[in-house]
Amino acid sequence: MDKPLLLGLPLLLSCLRSESLALRVGEVSPLISIPGFPAPMTEIIQCRMCHLQFPGERCSRGRGICTATEDEGCTTGRIFKKDGTLWLTFMGCLKNCANVDKIKWSVYLVKFRCCRGYDLCNETL
């Protein structure tokens, strides 16, 4: 197993959070209050959580459910080897989540999918 790459995973996630935040600069917030109308309700959803899951195996670390806050979404991240085979999957709640394809990380490619549609929506991503 590539232990140095696993130890670098939190660094990769923090870079992606910064990148997804940059994508949101200039967007208009959908939660604008209009006088005379009730304030919009923010839906709270639950997400499947697993910090480490290798192909063909069950979740080996961090299995559970997290609750996404107002600015979070459910995410599924997949790390692929250079030849396209799946190496690692992780799931959870992520702030400023954004769909991202094929980010190069050393000899791997990383893919993120985000959702907020319903509870545990990241189980099927």
Automatic annotation (TrEMBL):
Sorted alphabetically, the keyword list is:
Signal
* Signal peptide, first to last residue: 1-22
Q: Which PROSITE patterns match?
A: PROKAR_LIPOPROTEIN
Q: Does the keyword Signal apply?
A: yes
User: Is Signal a UniProt keyword of this protein?
Assistant: yes
Record Pfam families:
UPAR_LY6
Cited CDD domains: TFP_LU_ECD_PATE1
Q: Which domain of life is it from?
A: Eukaryota
**Start and end residues of each UPAR/Ly6 domain:** 45-123
InterPro entries in UniProt: LY6_UPA_recep-like (IPR016054)
Name-wise, this protein is Prostate and testis expressed protein 1
Organism taxonomic ancestry? Eukaryota, Metazoa, Chordata, Craniata, Vertebrata
